[in-house]
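Aggregate trends can hide what the representation actually does to any particular protein. This step matters because it turns folding into a mapping between discrete strings. For completeness, the protein is quoted in full, as a sequence line and a line of structure tokens:
=====
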Amino acid sequence: MPTSTSNPLQNPVDKSELRAAALAEGFDAVGFASADFGALPGEHLAEFIVAERHGDMDWIVEKADRRSHPQALWPEAKSVIMLGLNYGPEIDPLAYTEESERGVISVYAQGRDYHDVVKKKLKRIARAIVRDYGGDVKVFVDTAPVMEKPLAAMAGLGWQGKHTNLLSREFGSWLFLGCIFTTHEITPDEPLDGTCGSCTACLDICPTKAFPAPYQLDARRCISYLTIETRAHIEREMRPLIGNRIYGCDDCLAVCPWNKYAKTAHELNLQPRPELIAPSLAELATLNDAAFRALFSGSPVKRLGRNRFVRNVLIAIGNSGEASFPDVVTPLLKDDSPIVRVAAVWALGQLVPPEVYSCYRDNLIGDERDAAVREEWNLSEGSRNEQA
């Protein structure tokens, strides 16, 4: 949100009034923190980067200096207003993870893009702050180098659990976070004294073992990273572990015992679209770019792009064991996208008997159009021959 750093402060912010305004706007949790949150979050970020757990998310490294501290991003900031919007699901996010013919899309992506929903609300509150109290503001919704979770914990919205996500006593795992930086000095709220105790449910359920230790995440092994962030071919060793998750993963969130206090989301724009609840993998595999854009209009999935999404669908198809799926996969051996062709080669290798697999080789245009496809075919063929 554009701001001018010359706008003078007019009145001290009334916290109770601002809290009431945020709740009236539809937010479910409101807290206040100092813009100076100390050195510890930045130190944890540096450790994460040194260990290369960010994978190919180069933007984390490029903006690490600004991400490490709120005032490194905006030196004039004095306080941060943290706001949470409940997106608690009505259906158990794990309900469809064993449905081999269907894909699982993360709860947060089944409705409208939360970035748009939350930012509109933040902007209305921010304008009211400038109007009533003067000063300057900036709003952020996961679109700038801000460590929202440590800030939310400082503001008393919850605490970071062993899975590194924010936990709330009122809303469990299901809060979208947005923040308003301001030049106002606002008395901070007390951090919440929350704990996970001896529970390790979130660590134990992770299909890919993405947590090297409690409160630590290796993004390179996280299904959300693999299906959303990475632009590369997904490593062969990780593919069978993804199951039928085609966009994100809710396992570590859904299993948390604190969800017994969670509530179903009330924001209409966050309600899941029926066609995005356990959609048919066979139908998704046929999407061209135009159909993909139409289906996911207004959804965060759209930013992934058709090619990477179909890559994910093909991996789920390869994990399905369904005898009817080779006919779905075969046309994609000739797809224009190398990332789709590689996934199609792998999926086919999981579905057909070894003695049949080599017969599909002729379906590749020009007998494999690039090194990645050729390597994938040889690896898959070798693996199938060993199984035979």
